Amino acid sequence: MIHYREAVRILVIEDDADLRLAVSSALRGAGFAVDAVADLPAADEALAVNAYDCAVFDRMLPSGDALGYVRARRVPAPVLFLTALDSIAHRVEGLEHGDDYLVKPFALDELIARVRTLCRLGPTMAHVPLRCGDLEMDVARHQVRRGAVLLGLTGKEFAVLEHLLAHQDRVVTRDELLAGVWDALVRPESNVLDVTLSSLRRKLGDPPVIHTVPRVGYRVLPG
Q: Cα separation of 206 and 202, whole Å?
């Protein structure tokens, strides 16, 4: 049985408020859903109740070195360490217990690229394209085609379409899309989903693929 993933969800653990905001904003801008916390107890709580495709840990946190936490807890997601500890010994130690190691200061574009690579290592990655009529989504390559035309979608448009395609056997509710594609910072009354759907429908073109089911939600049907 093939298990399709939901929107890619990242956990960021960073005690520096400015860096935590910068990293979270960059990842959200790249299309990820992000939960961000400041220390290990909050990370422990988040990991207990949510499934993540990748966890980004600052190493030196108020509660101690995150390396020991990751080693003891066996975090069920690929782990990227962020740290100012840049010796060869520190890098080797980090890679023994995590999946990647990025030294501060770093470029946010590089962080995003590394997170994307790590998410492909996770168990929730789709193995086959998602299709509906002449619409095809290659999740691994992050590509969508309608007919022979390659479409340029934003990260959120891609995630919304992926969720709908993965559940095309039923109607997907508005709350489900908000929970699966965005994160806790988005309020249910927000219009972000409406804006994203409007843009996505325009890019998909005619005949329509995404259909509104009044008072219920949305579903995709072959055009």
A: 8
Fold of 9-119: Rossmann fold (3.40.50)
pTM: 0.56
Helix (H, G, I), strand (E, B) or coil at 205: coil
Tokens (6 digits) for 223 = 């055009």
| Both structure tokens of 154 | 């934003």
Enumerate the CATH 3.40.50.2300 domain ranges in the chain, comma separated.
Answer: 9-119
Strands 100-103 and 79-83: parallel
- What pLDDT digit, counting tens, does each position of 3-32 carry? 334 568 899 999 999 999 999 999 988 888
Q: Where are the beta strands (DSSP E) in 106-188?
A: 130-132, 135-138, 143-146, 149-151, 172-173
Give the confidence band of 158 by pLDDT, cuts at 50, 70, 90: confident
The answer to whether residues 216 and 171 touch, using CB atoms and an 8 Å cutoff, is: yes
Return the CATH class of domain 130-220.
mainly alpha
pLDDT digits (tens, 9 = 90+) for 53-77: 899 999 999 999 898 888 887 788 8
